[in-house]
Amino acid sequence: MRASWLLLALVVLVGALVAGVLVGPVPLRLSGVLRELADRLPFVHLSSGLSEQQSAILWQLRMPRVALAGLVGGMLALSDAAYQGVFRNPLADPYLLGVAAGAGLGATIAIAYGPAAADWPVDPLPLAAFAGALLGVSVTYALGRANLRRTTATLILAGVATASFLTAIQTYVQQREDDTVRQVYSWILGQLTTASWREVVLIRSQ
């Protein structure tokens, strides 16, 4: 039964990836995409039949978005599984300990008040998000003590409280700097519409 569900999930995943590549304002043929992919293999030379514009759309727009969406989804699934194993709770997720809220707050502060990415040798946004995530975990860990002991229940309650507090601060910053709201939410939701191979490489290195 479990193998059947895994097979079904794999079929749905492959279907979603294929649809993400083919569907759009400029339709692409499946046969042309497969030939284009095969043509990039060593010692293989095929004519895909795609125009120069279609080839650019495939490699510069849709493939990075699909690859990034797949990697992000896989990492979220792994983090969910890790949290559920640690807390022995099937409802546990990365939002439980204030990790996501802290990362969102760090990214919001970096977008609203931080320097431009061009002024840094590395993009400060992931660094700020990582620092915010560490802050969220640290606050939850400090608050999760009950009689000098940390239990699953107290950590969960502390995580919910920490996440709510950090989210409130993030909302306050967004209200003060309302011109950054769109950029913040675009980043929180994955920023897939502007994804490039640079983001894919950054995710793969994690």
What would your notes on this structure say?
- The chain has 206 residues and is an all-alpha fold.
- The protein folds into two domains: 9-80; 95-192, no CATH class.
- Helix content is 69%, strand content 2%.
- It contains eight helices and two strands; from the N terminus they run αααααββααα.
- The chain has helices at residues 2-22, 30-39, 52-87, 99-113, 124-143, 152-176, 181-188, 197-204; strands at 145-146, 149-150.
- Strands 1-2 form a two-stranded antiparallel sheet.
- Helix 1 packs antiparallel against helix 3, helix 3 (52-87) runs parallel beside helix 8 and helix 4 (99-113) runs antiparallel to helix 7.
- The longest helix has 36 residues, at 52-87.
- The model has no long low-confidence stretch (mean pLDDT 83).
List keywords for this structure.
two-stranded antiparallel sheet; 2% strand; 2 strands; 69% helix; 206 residues; mainly alpha; 2 domains
Number of helices in the DSSP assignment:
8
Instruction: Assign the structural class, choosing from mainly alpha, mainly beta, alpha/beta, alpha+beta, or little secondary structure.
Output: mainly alpha
**Shape field:** globular
Largest sheet: 2 strands, antiparallel
Task: Count the beta strands.
Answer: 2
Radius of gyration: 21 Å
Instruction: Provide the low-confidence segments as ranges.
Output: none
Averaging pLDDT over every residue, what do you get?
83
The helix-strand sequence is HHHHHEEHHH
> How are the strands ordered across the major sheet?
1-2
> Domains counted in the coordinates: how many?
2
| Share of residues in strands | under 5%
Straight-line distance between termini: 33 Å
Give the % helix: 55-70%
